[in-house]
Amino acid sequence: MKKRSSESSNDSYSDEESTKLYEIMSNDRYSDVILVVSDSIKFKSHRNLLGHSSKAFAKIFDNSNEIPVRISVKEFQAEIVKAALEFLYGKSDAIKGKEMEVFKFAEKYDIEELKYC
């Protein structure tokens, strides 16, 4: 995947690439991770993206043979987990208005590109 200048992680993908990533997220056909949040809402995701973005998730995946991997993120509200995932999949405005709570999620799961938004 081509990267533009790394002014900020929000701008690192072209609009076309961001749209493709977001389409991947929206289609759970090949998802292999389930994040279970505080209100029992489940978000499906992909270990390659989460593992690449987060040292904590990478460690979980390295120690699990389960597919899909189920991860409890019950200490966070669904809208925060969704915003973080959408951001990682290229929707740069997803965290607007939720920055502090998303930062806490990023801190817990060591997601660098979310810590500095």
From TrEMBL:
InterPro entries, sorted: BTB/POZ_dom, SKP1/BTB/POZ_sf
Gene3D superfamilies in the record: Potassium Channel Kv1.1, Chain A
Pfam family, one: BTB
Domain called BTB: residue spans: 31-97
UniProt protein name: BTB domain-containing protein
Species: Panagrolaimus davidi
